[in-house]
């Protein structure tokens, strides 16, 4: 149901990569001080499973975090 009071998020899963495709940040986007990543590498299947377990308003990447955020 669409509501004018809350934003709507649409995601096309049929247009995504193969389920075993590994997702990771581009090397140029990794923290230059020590090469730390905020999120671990994960597969498209892992991301979809995370998305199905959470609500639309939830942060679906939090289960992939590698370090504490400030």
Topology:
Blueprint: E1 22-23, E2 42-43, H1 44-53
Antiparallel strand pairs: 1-2
The stretches of 5 or more residues where confidence is low (pLDDT under 50) are none
For the biggest β-sheet, the strand order reads 1-2
Please bin the fraction of helical residues.
Answer: 10-25%
> Termini, distance in Å?
35 Å
Tell me how many strands there are: 2
Largest beta-sheet details:
2 strands, antiparallel
Element pattern in H and E: EEH
- Derived from helix and strand composition plus strand pairing, the structural class reads little secondary structure
Percent strand: 5-15%
Supply the number of helical segments: 1
Mean pLDDT over the residues: 79
Morphology call: globular
Keywords: Dioxygenase, Oxidoreductase
Organism: Zea mays
Protein name: Gibberellin 2-beta-dioxygenase
GO molecular function: dioxygenase activity
Describe this structure as you would to a colleague.
The chain is largely without helices or strands and 70 residues long. It has a domain at 38-64. Helices cover 14% and strands 6% of the residues. A two-stranded antiparallel ribbon has the order 1-2. The termini are far apart. The model has no long low-confidence stretch (mean pLDDT 79). Keywords: Dioxygenase, Oxidoreductase. One of its GO terms (molecular function) is dioxygenase activity. It comes from Zea mays.
């Amino acid at each position: 149901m669409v509501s004018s009071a809350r934003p709507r998020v649409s995601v096309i899963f049929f247009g995504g990569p193969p389920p075993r495709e590994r997702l990771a940040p581009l090397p140029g986007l990794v923290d230059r001080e020590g090469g730390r990543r905020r999120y671990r590498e994960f597969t498209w299947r892992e991301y979809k499973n995370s998305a199905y377990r959470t609500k639309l308003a939830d942060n679906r990447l939090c289960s992939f975090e590698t370090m504490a955020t400030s």
